Amino acid sequence: MAAHNHIPLPIGQVPSSPYYIHPSDMNSMQFVSNKFKDEGFTDWKRSMTISLSTKNKLGFVTGIINKPNLQYASYKQWERCNDMIISWIMYNLDAMIARSVLYFNIAAEIWKDLEDRYDSIDAFFTKMKMLWDELHLQSYSKDFQTTTRSEANAVLDEAQ
User: Is 137 within a domain?
Assistant: First the structure.
């Protein structure tokens, strides 16, 4: 039986590696049906998460795959993937939002910035919509007719 000498592929050429970039991957890929434009962040984020996961790149935005030290062999592959992911994120954002994250150098920092800015806004508007829907339903009941303005303001203050 002959011995097989296997030469390992560089990390960027192993299809199961997060550093692998498929030849069909382009920096201007539309991952979601609509670019994010200040509303619907939770849906946009979920769609992007699914797309990044299918590309084996989710760890770059969640921070699981950290930037290696400059002297490590994987540094260049990490940098290449990180830059590709940044371009994917920016391409799937509205132009004004993309400009606001243009000078971030790490995809995970862009992701965190977007979460910090828009996750809380989505949650606030969702809660406000639920309260408005509840108030709308109550407008048809007798209880609403006896609700004072200060009671209604208290409900709205509670939402914040």
Answer: yes
Half-sphere exposure of residue 29: CA atoms within 13 angstroms, side-chain side: 16
Angle at 126 between CA 123 and CA 128, to 5 degrees: 110
Nearest to 58 by CA among 24, 120, 107, 22: 107
Task: Render pLDDT for 21-31 as a digit per residue (tens, 0 to 9).
Answer: 888 888 777 88
Neighbours of 53 (CB within 10 A): 12
What are 106-150's pLDDT values in tens digits?
Answer: 999 999 999 999 987 666 777 777 777 777 777 655 454 555 666
Q: Which domain holds residue 113?
A: 30-159
In DSSP notation, 61-116 reads HHTSSPPPPTTSTTHHHHHHHHHHHHHHHHHTB-HHHHHHTTT--SHHHHHHHHHH
Longest dimension (CA), the chain: 91
Q: Could you say which DSSP state residue 53 is in?
A: H
Query: Comparing C-alpha atoms, which of 18, 111, 26 is closest to residue 56?
Result: 18
- Assigned domain for 88 exists: yes
